[in-house]
Amino acid sequence: MTATRAEVCVVACAEAWRGDGEILASPMGVVPTIGARLARLTFSPDLLLTDGEAMLIADVPALGEPATAVEGWLPFRRHLALVTGGRRHVMMGASQLDRHGNQNISCVGDWRRPARQLLGVRGAPANTLNHPTSYWIPRHSPRVLVEKVDMVCGIGYDRAAAAGPSATRFHRIPRVVTDLAVLDFETPDHTMRVRSLHPGVTAEELRAATGFRLDVPDHAPRTRAPTAEELRLIRDVLDPRALRGKEVRT
Fold first, then answer.
1. Does residue 97 contact residue 149 with C-beta atoms inside 8 Å?
2. What Gene3D superfamilies does the record tag this protein with (predicted)?
3. Across the 250 residues of the chain, what is the mean pLDDT of every consecutive 10-residue run?
4. What is the Cα Rg of the chain in Å?
């Protein structure tokens, strides 16, 4: 069976939680949600999942379906304890993201008089300084992958380093998954690099879609395709209504 680009992205998102152990997975977006549930059903069975509100769920329902088995209650106080103690790995979105991992979800343009008002800073600073934070970008473009974000919401490696040990203690950005590639910051200066290109994506296409200089190795690895069992789980168990295709259309 041939996987679609959306299904490759699901697996790439799932891989962000590989080896995390018993922590709270907090996916934001359709593809990351399917990815977290796929990870729970396969190589990360200890992941904690929620119903999106205040319940820890024991089962792994299809997207859009209610959970039928609840294993715990996660009120806001307990949720904050998990967040500040590093026991959570969130995959957030980004309206802008720069080469150092600084994220913007607040506004476009000068923050004093923005051209566009977005979500606001929300919990991004606390997330990025207190536990692992990955990012999901369904439309990789120069408008999103930018040289400099208009406002810093999620903290990147350069700003965390400048703030000192209190900021770097739990700061980590394991993965950036886009519809074109998987990126990370595993370089000596913690600037963004290409971890893998999705099948069918060229180095030239990735460079053209990025708003800063991004080195792409001549023989960049390819993002792995889903296994037959993973495809079955994605298509028949987790997302039978194929909602993933509305978020990634290629």
1. yes
2. Glutaconate Coenzyme A-transferase (3.40.1080.10)
3. 94 97 94 98 96 89 93 82 85 98 96 90 92 97 98 97 94 97 96 97 96 90 97 98 92
4. 18
As a whole number of angstroms, the distance between CA 131 and CA 69 comes to 27
Of 139, 142, 174, give the one whose Cα is nearest residue 157: 174
- Supply the range of the domain harboring residue 39: 5-247
HSE-up of 120 (CA within 13 Å, CB side)?
2
Domain total of the chain? 1
Q: What is the CATH number of the domain that holds 80?
A: 3.40.1080.10
Task: Look at residue 93 and give its three-state secondary structure.
Answer: coil
Structure tokens at 89: 């790995």
Residue 97's DSSP bridge partners are: 103, 145
Closest C-alpha to 91, from 19, 155, 172, 16:
16
State the pTM of this model. 0.95
